[in-house]
Specification:
42% of the residues lie in helices and 17% in strands. It is α+β, with helices and mostly antiparallel strands. The protein has a domain of 119 residues: SET domain (Beta-clip-like, Beta Complex).
Length: 263
Protein backbone atom coordinates (compact mmCIF):
# COMPACT_ATOMS: atom_id res chain seq x y z
CA UNK A 1 0.00 0.00 0.00
CA UNK A 2 1.58 3.32 -1.04
CA UNK A 3 2.42 6.01 1.48
CA UNK A 4 0.09 8.99 1.42
CA UNK A 5 0.90 12.40 2.82
CA UNK A 6 -1.15 13.49 5.79
CA UNK A 7 -1.91 16.67 3.89
CA UNK A 8 -4.01 14.69 1.43
CA UNK A 9 -7.75 14.53 2.16
CA UNK A 10 -7.97 10.77 1.58
CA UNK A 11 -6.59 7.41 2.65
CA UNK A 12 -6.57 3.85 1.32
CA UNK A 13 -8.71 1.48 3.37
CA UNK A 14 -10.72 -1.74 3.27
CA UNK A 15 -13.86 -1.61 1.17
CA UNK A 16 -16.66 -3.99 0.24
CA UNK A 17 -14.82 -4.84 -2.98
CA UNK A 18 -11.31 -5.00 -1.47
CA UNK A 19 -9.37 -1.75 -1.16
CA UNK A 20 -10.89 1.68 -1.63
CA UNK A 21 -10.16 5.37 -1.25
CA UNK A 22 -11.85 7.14 1.69
CA UNK A 23 -12.10 10.81 2.59
CA UNK A 24 -10.25 11.90 5.74
CA UNK A 25 -11.49 15.52 5.62
CA UNK A 26 -14.55 17.18 4.13
CA UNK A 27 -14.24 17.54 0.37
CA UNK A 28 -16.32 20.22 -1.30
CA UNK A 29 -18.24 19.74 -4.49
CA UNK A 30 -16.07 20.54 -7.57
CA UNK A 31 -12.79 20.19 -5.70
CA UNK A 32 -9.93 18.21 -7.24
CA UNK A 33 -9.30 15.01 -5.30
CA UNK A 34 -6.48 13.14 -7.05
CA UNK A 35 -4.89 12.71 -10.48
CA UNK A 36 -5.12 9.43 -12.39
CA UNK A 37 -1.69 8.85 -13.87
CA UNK A 38 0.68 6.26 -15.25
CA UNK A 39 2.66 5.43 -18.38
CA UNK A 40 1.06 6.53 -21.68
CA UNK A 41 0.35 3.73 -24.13
CA UNK A 42 0.22 4.38 -27.87
CA UNK A 43 -2.30 2.15 -29.62
CA UNK A 44 -0.28 2.47 -32.86
CA UNK A 45 2.52 0.51 -31.25
CA UNK A 46 1.92 -3.23 -31.15
CA UNK A 47 3.80 -3.54 -27.88
CA UNK A 48 1.61 -0.98 -26.12
CA UNK A 49 -1.57 -2.18 -27.81
CA UNK A 50 -0.95 -5.73 -26.51
CA UNK A 51 -1.04 -4.62 -22.84
CA UNK A 52 -4.22 -5.66 -21.04
CA UNK A 53 -5.21 -4.96 -17.42
CA UNK A 54 -8.07 -3.46 -15.41
CA UNK A 55 -6.40 -0.09 -14.89
CA UNK A 56 -6.22 1.14 -18.48
CA UNK A 57 -7.84 4.56 -18.82
CA UNK A 58 -8.53 5.45 -22.44
CA UNK A 59 -8.04 9.13 -23.30
CA UNK A 60 -8.90 8.86 -27.02
CA UNK A 61 -8.52 6.41 -29.89
CA UNK A 62 -4.75 6.58 -29.67
CA UNK A 63 -3.65 7.35 -26.12
CA UNK A 64 -4.33 5.30 -23.00
CA UNK A 65 -3.06 5.70 -19.44
CA UNK A 66 -1.77 2.53 -17.78
CA UNK A 67 -2.77 3.17 -14.17
CA UNK A 68 -1.52 -0.16 -12.78
CA UNK A 69 1.54 1.45 -11.18
CA UNK A 70 1.45 1.55 -7.36
CA UNK A 71 2.10 5.28 -7.27
CA UNK A 72 -1.28 5.86 -8.92
CA UNK A 73 -3.43 6.37 -5.81
CA UNK A 74 -6.50 7.01 -8.00
CA UNK A 75 -6.54 3.34 -9.04
CA UNK A 76 -7.94 2.50 -5.59
CA UNK A 77 -11.10 4.47 -6.31
CA UNK A 78 -13.91 1.98 -6.93
CA UNK A 79 -16.81 2.17 -9.36
CA UNK A 80 -20.12 3.60 -8.19
CA UNK A 81 -23.46 3.56 -10.03
CA UNK A 82 -24.41 6.65 -7.99
CA UNK A 83 -20.98 8.23 -7.52
CA UNK A 84 -19.85 11.21 -5.53
CA UNK A 85 -16.99 12.00 -7.93
CA UNK A 86 -16.23 11.95 -11.68
CA UNK A 87 -13.27 11.68 -14.01
CA UNK A 88 -12.29 14.94 -15.70
CA UNK A 89 -10.55 13.84 -18.93
CA UNK A 90 -8.24 16.25 -20.74
CA UNK A 91 -7.16 14.51 -23.97
CA UNK A 92 -4.96 17.29 -25.25
CA UNK A 93 -3.00 17.40 -22.00
CA UNK A 94 -3.20 13.57 -21.80
CA UNK A 95 -4.33 13.99 -18.27
CA UNK A 96 -7.17 12.72 -16.03
CA UNK A 97 -8.25 14.32 -12.76
CA UNK A 98 -10.84 12.96 -10.30
CA UNK A 99 -13.16 15.72 -8.99
CA UNK A 100 -15.97 15.70 -6.42
CA UNK A 101 -19.48 16.17 -7.77
CA UNK A 102 -20.98 16.18 -4.26
CA UNK A 103 -19.89 17.27 -0.84
CA UNK A 104 -18.02 14.28 0.59
CA UNK A 105 -17.91 13.74 4.35
CA UNK A 106 -14.97 12.29 6.30
CA UNK A 107 -15.02 8.47 6.28
CA UNK A 108 -17.12 8.33 3.12
CA UNK A 109 -15.77 6.22 0.27
CA UNK A 110 -14.89 8.06 -2.93
CA UNK A 111 -16.16 6.52 -6.17
CA UNK A 112 -16.92 7.40 -9.78
CA UNK A 113 -18.59 5.77 -12.78
CA UNK A 114 -16.14 3.67 -14.80
CA UNK A 115 -18.30 3.85 -17.91
CA UNK A 116 -20.46 1.41 -19.86
CA UNK A 117 -17.68 -0.50 -21.63
CA UNK A 118 -15.76 -1.22 -18.43
CA UNK A 119 -18.96 -2.11 -16.58
CA UNK A 120 -20.01 -4.66 -19.23
CA UNK A 121 -16.54 -6.16 -19.52
CA UNK A 122 -15.56 -6.45 -15.84
CA UNK A 123 -18.39 -5.64 -13.42
CA UNK A 124 -21.57 -7.04 -14.92
CA UNK A 125 -20.32 -10.68 -15.03
CA UNK A 126 -19.61 -10.65 -11.27
CA UNK A 127 -22.24 -8.11 -10.23
CA UNK A 128 -21.65 -4.54 -9.20
CA UNK A 129 -20.93 -4.19 -5.47
CA UNK A 130 -21.24 -0.45 -5.10
CA UNK A 131 -23.40 0.98 -2.31
CA UNK A 132 -26.26 1.84 -4.66
CA UNK A 133 -26.40 -1.67 -6.14
CA UNK A 134 -26.06 -3.22 -2.69
CA UNK A 135 -28.97 -1.13 -1.45
CA UNK A 136 -30.96 -2.13 -4.51
CA UNK A 137 -30.18 -5.81 -3.97
CA UNK A 138 -30.97 -5.49 -0.28
CA UNK A 139 -34.30 -3.91 -1.14
CA UNK A 140 -35.05 -6.69 -3.61
CA UNK A 141 -34.12 -9.32 -1.05
CA UNK A 142 -36.37 -7.65 1.51
CA UNK A 143 -39.21 -7.53 -1.01
CA UNK A 144 -38.62 -11.18 -1.89
CA UNK A 145 -38.68 -12.14 1.81
CA UNK A 146 -41.86 -10.13 2.31
CA UNK A 147 -43.43 -11.84 -0.71
CA UNK A 148 -42.42 -15.27 0.60
CA UNK A 149 -43.88 -14.44 4.00
CA UNK A 150 -47.06 -13.16 2.34
CA UNK A 151 -47.40 -16.34 0.28
CA UNK A 152 -46.64 -18.46 3.33
CA UNK A 153 -49.26 -16.63 5.40
CA UNK A 154 -51.74 -16.99 2.54
CA UNK A 155 -51.03 -20.72 2.28
CA UNK A 156 -51.37 -21.14 6.06
CA UNK A 157 -54.64 -19.23 6.02
CA UNK A 158 -55.93 -21.38 3.17
CA UNK A 159 -54.82 -24.56 4.95
CA UNK A 160 -56.53 -23.41 8.17
CA UNK A 161 -59.70 -22.62 6.24
CA UNK A 162 -59.65 -26.04 4.59
CA UNK A 163 -58.98 -27.70 7.94
CA UNK A 164 -61.95 -25.91 9.52
CA UNK A 165 -64.11 -26.82 6.55
CA UNK A 166 -63.08 -30.47 6.78
CA UNK A 167 -63.66 -30.42 10.54
CA UNK A 168 -67.17 -29.04 9.99
CA UNK A 169 -67.86 -31.74 7.40
CA UNK A 170 -66.64 -34.45 9.75
CA UNK A 171 -68.71 -33.01 12.59
CA UNK A 172 -71.79 -32.94 10.36
CA UNK A 173 -71.16 -36.55 9.32
CA UNK A 174 -70.69 -37.54 12.97
CA UNK A 175 -73.98 -35.82 13.89
CA UNK A 176 -75.79 -37.56 11.04
CA UNK A 177 -74.31 -40.91 12.07
CA UNK A 178 -75.30 -40.32 15.69
CA UNK A 179 -78.84 -39.37 14.66
CA UNK A 180 -79.10 -42.52 12.56
CA UNK A 181 -77.86 -44.64 15.44
CA UNK A 182 -80.36 -43.00 17.81
CA UNK A 183 -83.17 -43.59 15.33
CA UNK A 184 -82.18 -47.25 14.96
CA UNK A 185 -81.89 -47.64 18.72
CA UNK A 186 -85.30 -46.05 19.23
CA UNK A 187 -86.81 -48.29 16.56
CA UNK A 188 -85.28 -51.41 18.12
CA UNK A 189 -86.55 -50.30 21.54
CA UNK A 190 -90.09 -49.83 20.22
CA UNK A 191 -89.99 -53.18 18.42
CA UNK A 192 -88.73 -54.86 21.60
CA UNK A 193 -91.57 -53.43 23.67
CA UNK A 194 -94.14 -54.59 21.12
CA UNK A 195 -92.63 -58.09 21.09
CA UNK A 196 -92.61 -58.17 24.91
CA UNK A 197 -96.27 -57.19 25.01
CA UNK A 198 -97.24 -60.05 22.72
CA UNK A 199 -95.20 -62.51 24.77
CA UNK A 200 -96.96 -61.42 27.98
CA UNK A 201 -100.41 -61.92 26.39
CA UNK A 202 -101.14 -58.23 26.13
CA UNK A 203 -103.37 -57.77 23.13
CA UNK A 204 -105.42 -54.91 21.97
CA UNK A 205 -108.93 -54.76 20.47
CA UNK A 206 -110.61 -57.12 23.03
CA UNK A 207 -108.15 -60.01 22.92
CA UNK A 208 -106.63 -61.79 25.95
CA UNK A 209 -104.47 -59.72 28.29
CA UNK A 210 -102.46 -61.53 31.03
CA UNK A 211 -105.02 -64.31 31.20
CA UNK A 212 -107.82 -61.86 31.98
CA UNK A 213 -110.84 -61.69 29.68
CA UNK A 214 -111.43 -58.48 27.82
CA UNK A 215 -114.60 -57.11 26.18
CA UNK A 216 -116.77 -60.05 27.41
CA UNK A 217 -114.82 -62.93 25.88
CA UNK A 218 -114.46 -66.31 27.63
CA UNK A 219 -111.39 -67.42 29.55
CA UNK A 220 -111.23 -71.04 30.87
CA UNK A 221 -115.00 -71.36 30.70
CA UNK A 222 -115.69 -68.32 32.87
CA UNK A 223 -117.63 -65.45 31.39
CA UNK A 224 -116.80 -61.88 32.04
CA UNK A 225 -119.49 -59.27 32.44
CA UNK A 226 -121.66 -61.63 34.69
CA UNK A 227 -122.57 -64.32 32.05
CA UNK A 228 -123.11 -68.08 32.90
CA UNK A 229 -120.26 -70.54 33.31
CA UNK A 230 -119.65 -73.52 31.08
CA UNK A 231 -117.03 -76.12 30.52
CA UNK A 232 -114.80 -77.68 33.10
CA UNK A 233 -115.45 -75.17 35.86
CA UNK A 234 -119.17 -75.75 35.73
CA UNK A 235 -118.69 -79.53 35.71
CA UNK A 236 -116.54 -79.32 38.75
CA UNK A 237 -119.24 -77.40 40.63
CA UNK A 238 -121.87 -79.88 39.59
CA UNK A 239 -119.80 -82.82 40.70
CA UNK A 240 -119.22 -81.27 44.09
CA UNK A 241 -122.92 -80.99 44.87
CA UNK A 242 -123.79 -84.74 44.48
CA UNK A 243 -120.95 -85.68 46.82
CA UNK A 244 -122.32 -83.38 49.46
CA UNK A 245 -125.84 -84.86 49.10
CA UNK A 246 -124.46 -88.42 49.34
CA UNK A 247 -122.92 -87.60 52.67
CA UNK A 248 -126.30 -86.37 53.83
CA UNK A 249 -128.24 -89.40 52.58
CA UNK A 250 -126.01 -92.01 54.17
CA UNK A 251 -127.31 -91.64 57.80
CA UNK A 252 -130.86 -91.45 56.51
CA UNK A 253 -130.66 -94.85 54.84
CA UNK A 254 -128.97 -96.41 57.95
CA UNK A 255 -131.89 -95.62 60.28
CA UNK A 256 -134.81 -98.12 59.99
CA UNK A 257 -138.40 -98.12 61.44
CA UNK A 258 -137.50 -100.27 64.38
CA UNK A 259 -134.66 -98.06 65.39
CA UNK A 260 -136.92 -95.08 65.22
CA UNK A 261 -139.50 -96.82 67.49
CA UNK A 262 -136.98 -97.83 70.11
CA UNK A 263 -135.71 -94.38 70.08
Amino acid sequence: MPAISSKKPYRVGRSRTGLGLFATRPIKKGAKIVRYFGPLLDSKKKKDDAIENKYLFELNNRWTIDGSVRENIARYINHGCRPNAESDVMPRKRKVVIRAIKNISPGEEINYDYGTDYFKAYLKPIGCKCDACERKRKKKRAEARAERLRLKAKAEKKALKNALKNAEKQAAKAREKLEEELKLELKRSLNGKAAGGKANGKLANGRLANGKPANGEHFNGALSNGHAQSGGAAGKSAAAKPRASTKLRTPVTAVGPQQQASA
